[in-house]
Write a structure and sequence with these properties.
This protein is α/β, with parallel strands linked by helices and 215 residues long. Helix content is 48%, strand content 15%. The chain has a domain at 2-115 and 179-213: P-loop containing nucleotide triphosphate hydrolases (Rossmann fold), CATH 3.40.50. Helix 2 (31-41) crosses helix 3 and helix 4 (61-72) packs parallel to helix 5. It is globular, with a radius of gyration of 17 Å.
């Protein structure tokens, strides 16, 4: 499957993507993970992106499209891909449309995951992430904490609250999403690719998509 996953920060796009990749061998492509890895590694791209990310602002399109063009041509994308958190603006969606046409790739669907704002705030403020860029395991202090407080179960690195997951930064990210990303719902509706799924449980979203693809 070749999907775009839309939805506010904390809507569960990453969780849904991970479950779907296990079903059909598609790869999850998250620009957030790629950028955070670059920040941790201290690359040129990482340093450039870091200032934007700390403020909860969007990283410029020129940086993102360069990453995306390279990523979609890697061999593991042959079986399909799930774009998680990209595109985020109408200009990015138009640039992606042009890029996919150039690479002769057709999208199956743009899935809009709808989750109430209160649920998102609660999820993100209690979320913690492994600081090791090779791991990036995600925990939740309420629902799925690490076995040892502050230590990743998988690799033993520190588990931290990301700078963009404080309540202030999350409110800013949600405002940015509503202003710049929510219009993508209309864009993909016009393209005839939109499917909206409402639900706070990732299983509900996954089951609807499995049924849409006959899996």
């Amino acid at each position: 499957m070749k999907l775009i996953l839309l939805g506010a920060p904390g809507a569960g796009k990453g969780t849904v993507a991970k479950i779907l990749t296990a079903i059909d061998g598609s790869v999850q492509i998250s620009t957030g993970d790629i950028l955070r890895g670059a920040v941790q590694a201290g690359t040129e791209l990482g340093k450039e992106a870091e200032a934007y990310m700390k403020r909860g602002d969007l990283v410029p399109d020129s940086l993102i499209m360069g990453i995306m063009g390279k990523r979609l041509q890697e061999p593991d994308c042959q079986k399909g891909f799930l774009l998680d958190g990209f595109p985020r603006t109408i200009p990015q969606a138009e640039a992606l449309k042009a890029l996919l046409a150039k690479l002769n790739i057709s999208l199956d669907m743009a899935v809009n995951i709808e989750v109430p704002r209160e649920t998102i705030l609660d999820r993100l403020c209690t979320r913690r992430t492994c600081e090791n860029p090779q791991c990036q395991a995600i925990y939740n202090v309420k629902s799925s904490p690490p076995k040892q407080e502050g230590i990743c179960d998988k690799c033993g690195s520190a588990v931290i609250q990301r700078d963009d997951e404080t309540e202030e930064a999350i409110s800013h990210r949600l405002a940015t999403y509503n202003e710049k990303t929510a219009p993508l719902i209309g864009f993909y509706e016009k393209e005839g690719l939109l499917k909206t799924v409402s639900g706070t449980s990732s299983d509900v979203v996954v089951n609807e998509l499995k049924s849409a693809f006959g899996l």
